[in-house]
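Could someone model alpha-D-glucopyranose with this protein?
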Amino acid sequence: MTTTPTTPADGLTRRRLLGTAGTAAVAGAAALAPVAPASATTPGRTASRDRRVEQLLRRMTRQEKIGQLRLANTVESAEEALTTTGLGGIFSVVGARAINAIQRKAVEGTRLGIPLIVGLDVIHGYTTNFPIPLGQAAAFDADVAADDARVSAAEARRSGIHWTFAPMMDVCHEPRWGRIAEGNGEDPYLTTVLAAVKTKAYQGSSLASATSVAACAKHLAAYGAPEGGRDYNTVDVSIQRLHNLYLPPFKAAVEAGAATVMTSFNTIAGVPAHGNADLVRGVLKDRYRFEGFVVSDYTGVQELIPHGQAADGRDAAREGIRAGVDMEMTSTTYVENAAALLASGAITQRQLDDAVRRILRVKLDLGLFEEPYVDEAGEVTAPTAATRRSARSAAARSLVLLRNEGDVLPIPRTGRIAVIGPLATATYDLNGTWAGLGTGASTTPPTTVLAAIEALATGTVVHEPGCDVSGRGTGGIDAAVAAARAADVAVLVLGEDATMSGEAAARSDIGLPGVQQRLAEAVAEAQPSTVAVLVNGRPLTLTALAAAVPAILEAWAPGLEGGRAIADAVFGATNPGGKLPVSFPRSVGQVPLYYNHENTGRPYDPDNKFTSKYLDVEDGPLYPFGHGLSYTTFEVSDVRLSRATMSRRGGSVSVSAVVRNTGRVAGDEVVQLYVRDPVASIVQPVRRLRGFERVRLEPGVRRRVTFELTPGDVGFYDGDARWRVERGEIEVYVGTSSQAPLAGSFTVR
Ligand code: GLC
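Reply:
Sure, complex below.
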């Protein structure tokens, strides 16, 4: 499917975000995209809902209102809150029976019986685990993300969960950051497409549906840009980069009807997100017209104290409420201080009512007043054949063939196969970070890569771990080498365990952990037909591995059915067609390294010393954004542009190209469209992804794919957060990675 977000941008800003207010530099048709959220409610139902909200608000006491702002994370704290401060919701409580029990205390044990909203981190699965979101992004296929969301939402809602803290949409140029695993990579366009698709798929046609959950666009904002890649660390980005790189997915999620948004732990230009009124009220609620509610990330409100924006809990509560953070997760500064803040005028009744109004809206849209309880008999306690098929397909489509010298892959099923490496027998590590917390998830181990290979092989399969994932011990390498030498082919299964990416899991060195590289070199020396399969949650520096082995298959943390998907690909039952959603650097010293970079005044020139480069490493990534090979070959040709000009005020230019399978087996190719504005008032990245389409072609077959470019695809936000579409040339690049060649250009008039 061709994908071009239709959210060009707005040109008018009612409040400044870290810049000067002002009207659009260039109005144009793209000036103010329709921002009214395409929420899961229709106008008629919205009016009825809003009437119910106002009626309820009028009946609520001040304390009952304040209580709605609290989100507790244990049954004990929830029970205590219901009899003291009041409570709006719970999270991280799993099990239909336990959820019904606490819900009954809210509905039947309080004066107004306002039901609790029940949240959980359903990031890439509830009971059925899909690949980590970074792997899903590698599929370059929005249906993969949608399938995860639909399956996860149905499993979660049937088990009593109303609200997931997903999709995470933090664009990230920092592979040292553990949470790069949880997002969709370094590109705002790909992340935007997937953010909108996933939001809609979680929420379905109605939030009240038995298979829908409220989505949560997180983490607002720029959480993926921590200095040094260290989680929770300082973020200091320019206004233009904030709006061009980090905010577009949130705008798209709001337009897709996201019911909730979560603020991020970090500062932006010195102001913590949880106390950042320009960001939360100014951009999200005013500019994007977000109508749902904002929840803090864990103790993010209370963390305004160590951040240095608040002296104590009272200050923190004041800053959070003023900023527009409606519900406080885990910490209790709101319920402890809101009454006094109201009495002193530090916060207003309007601010309190607005927060409660937003929360009640979502609860009503979820149908919680009509159906507060979950049918315990319907609780999902195990995957089904159908959800396993969906997870296996997602894992297969997320695989990226990084290297395949001599077409060593796929390997024959016959003969003697040595499966070597510490992750060959991994089970739950295949689920990666933020694995499903659902009932049944922890009692359903994924099939190991070894078992999956054994199931498909027709010859002999032997296994040697060789080493641990991160230990220094080398005692197992000799046995691994002997097994490889005696085999016809060796399959290395290497990478990271699930704890080495995700929250609070930054790595200063992103090479293969422990002595895995040493194992790989020893095995490959003994067995030339050696292939490496990687299970990991981030880009790794693979320069040494690529020098040692002829073939590398990137599998990410592939989820419940990942072992089987890997075996299918290794034997050629499937043909990998994924692409990298993040650049793989040659060395961690190159980081940050990303495709959508500025050209600089002295771009790298191998013939000129005084250009931007390192003395001790080759220029650019080992594997660039958009890279991915196949067991067949493809050719992209005959690029055509429908027009030579585009009006700033509207209109479009179609870009089409023919892609042909020039090899001997069927396969998938992802045709990618990039643009570049070579001269602009704010220098623009050398490439910006603006379209992708994954096509499956039989040998010899060709297809023409077509993309539509509009002013929204070529404009950008300037240093005052104003949307601009400027006159001048736009270069067009079409190909199969971010290194696609120049294919033509048109002029914006
Ligand atoms: C964590 C994460 C956030 C998650 C929340 C609830 O700290 O930052 O993404 O949704 O707490 O578990």
